[in-house]
Write a structure and sequence with these properties.
- The chain is α+β, with helices and mostly antiparallel strands and 136 residues long.
- The protein has a single domain, classed as Beta Polymerase, domain 2 (2-Layer Sandwich), CATH 3.30.460.
- The protein is built from 4 helices and 5 strands.
- It has a 5-stranded mixed sheet.
- A hairpin with a 7-residue loop joins β1 and β2.
- The N and C termini lie close together (10 Å).
- 24% of the residues are buried.
Length: 136
Amino acid sequence: MISTTLAHDLDIPSGVSRLVKHHLRLKDEPLLMAIVFKPRRAKSDIVLFEVIENFGAGAVDADHELFEVNLGTNSGVELDPGQRLRLVLTNPYEFRQAVRDRWSGIQDLTKAIDRGDFKVLHCPRNQAKLRALINA
């Protein structure tokens, strides 16, 4: 089972929590899972990794790259000064393939999970298959 325990040094900016709450209200692309973590290589960054039903029309990227957008402090999302939010979005099919085939874009997430340096912001119990993938 995924631990939702927050690592002692992981502060989540309020803007990230508000963004997840906004995504939870979307009906045509329901949010299935949201995990936040800080990558080791860019400690001032924060990564919000979301699995969204119907994202990208449910397609799997042929180049094995997850969709990622970088947001800074003047992006409309409230962040700490100098902080950058890396928003990584995928759908359940692509997520499963990325985990199974160890795509490079999934490595930061799996490393954060291995370290216990992450927090699950949203993952209902009915998403057991997604939970199991990141616990494998």
